[in-house]
Specification:
Elements (H helix, E strand, L loop, with lengths): L20 H10 L6 H10 L14 H10 L6 E7 L5 E6 L5 E9 L2 E5 L3 E3 L14 E4 L2 H15 L6 E6 L9 H12 L11 E5 L3 H8 L6 E5 L5 H7 L2 H4 L2 H15 L3 E7 L7 H11 L6 E6 L13 H13 L3 E4 L13 H8 L4
Parallel strand pairs: 4-7, 7-8, 8-9, 9-10, 10-11, 11-12
Antiparallel strand pairs: 1-2, 2-3, 3-4, 5-6
Bound molecules: iron/sulfur cluster.
Iron/sulfur cluster (SF4) binds next to loops.
GO cellular component, one term: cytoplasm
GO molecular function: 4 iron, 4 sulfur cluster binding; metal ion binding; rRNA (adenine(2503)-C2-)-methyltransferase activity; rRNA binding; tRNA (adenine(37)-C2)-methyltransferase activity; tRNA binding
Enzyme class: transferase
Amino acid sequence: MELKEPKVLAAAKPYAYDLTLEDWQEWIKESGEAGFRAGQIFDWLYVKRVSSFEEMTNLPKSLREKLVEQFDFVTLSEVAKYESKDGTVKFLFELADKNAIETVIMKHSYGNSVCVTTQVGCRIGCTFCASTLTGLKRNLTPGEIIAQVVKAQQQLDPTNERVSSIVIMGIGEPFENYDAMMKFLKVMIHPKGLNIGQRHITVSTSGIVPNIYRFAEENTQINLAISIHAPNDTLRSKLMPVNRRYPFAELIEACQYYVAKTGRRITFEYALMGGVNDRPEHAEELAQVLKTFPMAHVNLIPVNFVSERDYVRTPRDDIFTFQRILERNKVNATIRREQGSDIAAACGQLRAKHMESGAR
Ligand code: SF4
């Protein structure tokens, strides 16, 4: 599989959300404006969360005009919003170029978590995932990722709640849109931006090995999750074609490097598929691989049914058996609580349905 950088939107103007505070400082300097204006713009964008430059009333009119001339606001038009009985809210948004993306708000006892999309579609081809069925259209810009969190926050504003954590686990492979993802993260964690604690953010990758090394050097407290889904090379290649490009042993080596370099634990995501990767022998094999990590944690995810795929759910007792085998081998494992199953909240399912109706 050839992994070149995917294309991004060829927008006429950059989005205001595409810029970090440092980018704004630079732009303000180049524009010959007073330095403190950068902080004011940032404040309007992320604290007051306005949706036009006209509303930035403490900026001189000439500066507002310059901003209108040079930047756009991201438009996320709400095509559909589904609310689950368990409080999960799933949005289907249309971007300026009519492509559709999904964003999910999940309610937990510890706060509200938002799951964001980083690409329009995905080319990684995981066989259990609806997001990849029609391939990759394009990367999102940093601003298009940020706008999803701002929208989620606006949804929570009437009840005075806040977005307290973020998972980058929506449609797309974030490590294939690395630079945009890093800019997004900078704005999320900035005390003058959305100010979300680094330890409350998780980035999940299917195993783009070079960028695991790169992420290890970023010196952040952001959590890393690896979608492992199989205990060996052969099975992983069947379930995840990315494994043919970055084989299992290379992935594990990169993870070992990350842990040694950062001192942080990795969460391994394991989607259980009935009769495919959920047998006791798979659990034993996985435990042998992961017990070499000092603090490995496995998230067991009973797979969601995708109508275009053949996978079936693992019976409840077998899920517990799998968990017990890991724990007996001193590998910490939790079973992920299913959220929003009554609203097709599995990644890519709403977009896939929307596309069936002729949309992009
Ligand atoms: S699971 Fe993630 S990486 Fe794999 S195809 Fe789906 S969106 Fe892409």
